[in-house]
Amino acid sequence: MDHNDTFRELMNKLRAPFPKEVQQPRSDGHGTYIPIAYYLERLNEAAGQHWSHERVGEPVFYDQDRLVHTVVKVTILGRSHHGEGFSKYQVDTSGKMINRHYAIRSATKDAIRDALTFFGMKQDSLSTDKRKEVNPKITKVDPQLNSERTCIKCNKELSIEEIENLLNLQIKFDYCTEHLPKHLRKKK
Ligand SMILES: [Zn+2]
């Protein structure tokens, strides 16, 4: 098998539609999205050690919107694409940023996902038929910012397990395992 076949096979795995179970309702009430954690899981399954990413330049902070912006370069089997990512950060009562590190990480993951779309991996991957039904206007409503879920206490990005746990417990707010209030931990 030559290099191109390997690349094509890997891309086929990456581009396969996501199962329905991993789609989460968007916070704006319009449709669904796939949490970043699933993209990364898919990427690691399909590409293993054949992918890497590096951040390009320094993260840029937009104080007014409380956003951090990063650019990354993702390389899969020697081919690269750039992606841009955003993440909202939270501030404490004195206006100081909470968990800068996680905000940057979160934006970086968003940028990796953006780069993956240039490899042909779909945002909001529904099955191909379903996608055609989606109103094109909806996709303009900032899919990136809605598609990440971070702990409301520490800003850490939630893992797949943590998102699933919140779903199981029917908890409306996003908490990481560490900050999940004790009284909410048991299913009612
Ligand atoms: Zn937390």
Would you spell out the secondary-structure blueprint of this structure?
Layout: H1 3-15, E1 24-25, E2 32-33, H2 36-47, E3 51-62, E4 67-76, E5 79-88, E6 90-91, E7 97-98, H3 100-118, H4 128-133, H5 143-146, H6 160-169
Antiparallel strand pairs: 1-2, 3-4, 4-5, 6-7
Bound molecules: zinc ion (ZN).
Write a compact overview of the structure shown.
With 188 residues, the protein is an alpha+beta fold. It has six helices and seven strands, in the order H-E-E-H-E-E-E-E-E-H-H-H-H.
Beta content: 15-25%
By CATH, the architecture is named: 2-Layer Sandwich
Spatial order of strands in the largest sheet: 3-4-5
User: What string gives the helices and strands in order?
Assistant: HEEHEEEEEHHHH
CATH class: Alpha Beta
Low-confidence segments, ≥5 residues, pLDDT <50? 125-146
Ligands (ions, cofactors included)? zinc ion
The largest β sheet comes out as: 3 strands, antiparallel
Secondary structure class reads alpha+beta
If you average the pLDDT, what whole number results? 81
Helix content: 25-40%
Instruction: Indicate how many domains the architecture comprises.
Output: 1
How would you sum up the global shape? globular
Radius of gyration, CA atoms, in whole angstroms: 17 Å
What would the CATH topology be? Enolase-like, domain 1
**Tally of individual helices:** 6
Distance between the termini: 54 Å
Instruction: Count all strands and give the number.
Output: 7
